[in-house]
Predict the 3D structure of the following.
Amino acid sequence: MMKTIENLGNVFSSALMEAIATTTSVHLDGVSSEAGDACFYELTGVMSLCSKKGGILFITAKESDIRILCSYMTGISLEEVTKEDAEDTLCEFVNMTAGSAKLRLSDPDYMFTLSTPFIIKGQNMTVATKSKTHVISRVLWSGEISVNLTIIC
């Protein structure tokens, strides 16, 4: 089971890196596995992953980092990027990441039906899970930009 969980983390990390590189030309070349609780920043994009195993995807980052990525993605100057633009950008990253991961996964237990992505705003949130729940956390970065990926299944 642990190999499957690690593979799931790798698939989603790769999908997020690809989504950001494709839309912004920013390559998140640093990846670290985080043990323990997930870290949540000002903006968190969320999507439910419905399957036999089920799960939920969180992508979280500082609002300033999402604004930079939004500026690269849209061509809007950084000063003109609105909070709504940043939220839309994060939802798009969640959608692209989950969709790409869904296509890459061949395990029937992880044949996901995806929900609509949505945003949770706020800092210092925590997610409580049952004791046998798996939490996969990754931090992806490039220079000053950092994005956290968490999958709970």
Summary: The beta strands are 30-34, 43-50, 55-61, 113-114, 118-121, 135-142, 145-152. The radius of gyration is 15 Å. Helices lie at 2-24, 63-74, 83-104. The chain has one domain: 2-152.
